[in-house]
User: Which sequence fits this backbone?
């Protein structure tokens, strides 16, 4: 990169905050038509490659389908599709018309789908035969359905518009609808632990922040083969597994199959993946299974990145031993994208400090504040916030149709956006995650972040994963309880439980070690791989 990060950020802001934009043009049409975009494979082993030129052609025709259904600028279109070409064609077509994409994760049940469709005001839903029945409990007259064929033999209503047949017969839309940087192009719902999910409004100008992460955080280069394992039904997969690589005109992989260690290593090897991103749970799974013998020499991976929840330092150490490179931890949210990273870009690469998520990404300024919005000095734990006054690419403006929840996120007259996480920083502005505000354990006057205890447990040879919570205790208020998944070859016992407690006590601290340990087969997680500690607390 020939210019400094600040100048580059200003250039992107100018580029994506204009009044005559087309998201489809930015993500697709402006790129080399012959450049490979999507490298797709499904669980049956079927492979397809789509160039940017082919995606342009198909999405222009599908925009014609949507147009005949009455979709116009500002309309919400819900998409309940798995990873694959139909998903890319759909979203590009939506954005050609200046409409708004509402992602629906395919693991959602009917209730989750119904709420998001109803709350967003979507009147058109694009799905496939395998997911069509999830719409059956909804009032059929309130929306239009376009259904793609799938490997299932499930019947779909005759009133549905068939995806591919309609596309091939449609009159293409060659002229894209213009939008401004302030117009919405996505409404995506958070997975919150209490209450209804909240719709996050994503304006077009958020593209500046997305490009910042792709280049500064991931150091995605023109010759990279990029694989982000996250599903586009969630923020990390949507922002940085689909929108991000298209923004840069990159080649990227979509593998539509259940994750397995064997298939993961095959994809890495066969496609020559050079830039890989995944949640910590993926790395922990790879670590637990062990690397296949002799495969290391066949891999071309240059960059390993982790996001979605804090990365245990022990996992990064494992990667450095087995892949020859460490995993870099990154932090972000649905509401703002990635904001604190151990950056891969050479101009921003700094020594990685164990347990740190890194430093603020260019265009953002992270701060640690108290409940009154006063910034705290290095070493003090407080609320992780974004200083909106000094964060030119900060784009979150509110939750869709929820002014009350929006107000709760901002303090000091809007100066600080509260992430809902607790953290601290050091003198070098490295940020250290403590936990969700409601996950913090208060024991004998100490505030204990579960992540630190989980990381300590991960250093034990027997531990594959752990989830730590506070449980009521008459004497201490709360004590630390760990739910532990063991690696193959280890068997649960009282002796092992005692050994784990002493291991943490000796390696972390005398007040943070788990006084109770429960061995479990697996940890409850969200579909995106985050540990659901509230379920552990209620178990």
Assistant:
């Amino acid at each position: 990169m020939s210019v400094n990060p600040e100048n580059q950020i200003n250039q992107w802001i100018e580029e994506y905050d204009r009044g005559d934009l087309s998201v489809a043009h930015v993500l697709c049409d402006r790129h080399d038509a012959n450049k490979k975009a999507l490298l797709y494979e499904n669980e049956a082993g079927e492979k397809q490659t789509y160039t940017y030129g082919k995606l342009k052609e198909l999405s222009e025709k599908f925009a014609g389908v949507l147009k005949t259904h009455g979709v116009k600028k500002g309309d919400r279109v819900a998409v309940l599709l798995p990873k694959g070409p139909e998903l890319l064609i759909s979203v590009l077509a939506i954005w050609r018309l200046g409409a708004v994409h509402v992602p629906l994760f395919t693991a959602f049940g009917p209730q989750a789908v119904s709420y998001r469709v109803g709350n967003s005001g979507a009147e058109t839903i694009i799905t496939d035969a395998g997911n069509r029945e999830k719409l059956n409990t909804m009032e059929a007259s309130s929306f239009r359905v376009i259904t793609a064929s799938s490997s299932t033999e499930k019947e779909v209503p005759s009133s549905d518009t068939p995806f591919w047949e309609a596309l091939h017969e449609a009159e293409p839309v060659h002229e894209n609808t213009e939008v401004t940087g302030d117009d919405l192009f996505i409404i995506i719902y958070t997975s919150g632990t209490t209450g209804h999910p909240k719709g996050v409004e994503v304006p077009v100008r958020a593209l500046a922040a997305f490009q910042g992460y792709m280049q500064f955080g991931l150091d995605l280069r023109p010759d990279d083969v990029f694989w982000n394992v996250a599903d586009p039904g969630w923020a990390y997969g949507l922002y940085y597994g689909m929108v991000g690589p298209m923004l840069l005109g990159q080649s990227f992989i979509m593998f539509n199959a259940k994750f397995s260690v064997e298939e993961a290593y095959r994809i890495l090897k066969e496609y020559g993946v050079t830039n890989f991103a995944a949640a910590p749970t993926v790395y922990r799974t790879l670590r637990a299974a062990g690397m296949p013998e002799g495969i290391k020499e066949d891999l071309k991976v240059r960059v390993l990145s982790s996001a979605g929840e804090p990365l245990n330092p022990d996992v990064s150490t494992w990667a450095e031993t087995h892949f020859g490179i460490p995993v870099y931890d990154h932090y972000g949210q649905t509401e703002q994208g990635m904001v604190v990273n151990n950056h891969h870009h050479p101009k921003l690469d700094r020594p990685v400090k164990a347990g740190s998520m890194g430093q603020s990404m260019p265009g953002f300024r992270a701060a640690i504040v108290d409940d009154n919005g006063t910034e705290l000095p290095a070493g003090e734990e407080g609320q992780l916030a974004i200083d909106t006054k000094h964060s030119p690419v900060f784009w979150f403006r509110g939750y869709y149709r929820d002014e009350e929840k929006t107000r709760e996120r901002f303090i000091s007259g809007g100066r600080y956006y509260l992430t809902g996480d607790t953290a601290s920083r050091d003198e070098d502005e490295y940020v250290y995650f403590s936990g969700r505000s409601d996950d913090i354990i208060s024991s004998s006057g100490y505030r204990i972040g579960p992540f630190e205890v989980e990381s300590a447990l991960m250093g034990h040879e027997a531990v594959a994963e752990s989830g730590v919570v506070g449980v009521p205790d008459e004497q201490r208020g709360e004590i630390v309880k760990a739910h532990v998944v063991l690696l193959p070859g280890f068997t649960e016992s009282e002796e092992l439980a005692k050994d784990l407690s002493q291991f943490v006590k000796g390696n972390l601290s005398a007040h943070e070690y788990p006084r109770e340990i429960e061995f479990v087969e697996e940890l409850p997680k969200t579909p995106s791989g985050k540990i659901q500690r509230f379920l552990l607390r209620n178990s």
